[in-house]
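A.,

Following up on our hallway conversation. Structure tokens first:
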């Protein structure tokens, strides 16, 4: 039989909570409805956010470059070790073959001497550790056995070193993948922000950047660019020859560059090898902390973690590869946080 009891009424506290939640939902809906197009970030706000994302992308790019550099060095070291192991194994086989020949000669003459049997053992260390065994061997035989011992130890050491470097290489490749993902994520976020701008706003931004580059170029032309040393002057001239080349993260020339890719490539054209990353380049020469003491072609390091580098162009300007979406160009050093210069 159906129940006819009166339904239980909600408590006053529950009614209050429900009412508050409903009111909040109405407010949120109203806010969403009132988010007029005019309230979207302004062109300057978008630019500031995009610049920040580009800076974060460049930080990740320098770590990416460092991981790439380490990977290449590890691969070369591993290849060298593996070649050494292969040659060492050949030498060991020859030593064992020579002992085998001795054993064959003894066998033909009436049996293998127990001491020669020791030579053929897979683990001669056990025998060398026993003085009684050594007494049974001639000095020539002892010397031959020690050579095998030394070669075995050398090979074991090199194999262990190769194994460690292979593990390091695996970790480096994983770091490479992480940094690449980080860079791509920052750049994608920046592009999304740029896509919120109208065609008119994008054109205005392009004009502003072109005007800033033009002013920087004019200041370089007015400045004294004759104070560079031979190598620095050659490096600076090389960098000037690629003005207008696009920034591409991880690139080191000759047609595209990231910041440290440009500086390392430019100095390579002058016959000077410097490290690949901006952080390493910060320690590649004599530091110059006063901007007034800088000479054209000196490296200039920016930001506290040294994640950006360029070449001093004179008159307070830097020649650098700024960020994705930009090209190699002159820019005022005052637009960034200058840390110090480095004279190679």
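Then the amino acids I'd put at each of the 344 positions:
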């Amino acid at each position: 039989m159906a129940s006819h009891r009166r339904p239980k009424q909600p408590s006053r506290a529950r009614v209050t909570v429900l009412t508050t939640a409903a009111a909040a939902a109405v407010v949120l809906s109203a806010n969403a409805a009132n988010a007029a197009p005019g309230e979207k970030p302004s062109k300057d706000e978008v630019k500031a956010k995009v610049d920040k994302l580009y800076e974060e992308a460049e930080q990740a790019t320098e770590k990416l470059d460092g991981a790439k550099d380490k990977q290449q060095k590890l691969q070369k070291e591993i290849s060298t070790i593996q070649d050494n192991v292969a040659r060492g194994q050949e030498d060991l086989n020859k030593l064992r073959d020579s002992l085998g020949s001795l054993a064959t000669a003894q066998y033909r003459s009436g049996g293998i001497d127990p001491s020669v049997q020791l030579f053929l053992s897979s683990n001669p260390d056990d025998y060398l550790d026993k003085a009684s065994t050594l007494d049974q061997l001639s000095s020539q035989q002892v010397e031959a056995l020690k050579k095998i011992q030394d070669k075995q130890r050398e090979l074991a050491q090199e194999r262990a070193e190769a194994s460690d470097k292979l593990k390091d290489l695996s970790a480096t490749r994983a770091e490479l993948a992480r940094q690449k993902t980080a860079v791509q994520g920052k750049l994608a976020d920046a592009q999304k922000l740029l896509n919120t701008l109208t065609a008119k706003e994008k054109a205005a931004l392009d004009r502003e950047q072109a005007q800033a580059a033009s002013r920087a170029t004019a200041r370089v032309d007015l400045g004294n660019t004759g104070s560079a040393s031979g190598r620095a002057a050659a490096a600076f001239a090389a960098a000037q020859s690629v003005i207008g080349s696009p920034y591409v993260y991880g690139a080191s020339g000759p047609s595209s560059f990231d910041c440290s890719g440009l500086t390392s490539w430019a100095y390579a054209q002058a016959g000077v090898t410097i490290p690949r990353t901006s952080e390493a380049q910060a320690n590649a020469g004599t530091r110059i902390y006063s901007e007034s003491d800088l000479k054209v072609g000196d490296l200039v390091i920016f930001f506290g973690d040294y994640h950006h580098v360029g070449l001093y162009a004179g008159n307070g300007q830097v020649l650098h590869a700024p960020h994705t979406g930009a090209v190699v160009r002159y820019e005022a050093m005052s637009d960034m946080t200058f840390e110090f210069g480095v004279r190679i």
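The first helix runs from residue 12 to 33. Curious whether your intuition agrees with the design.

B.
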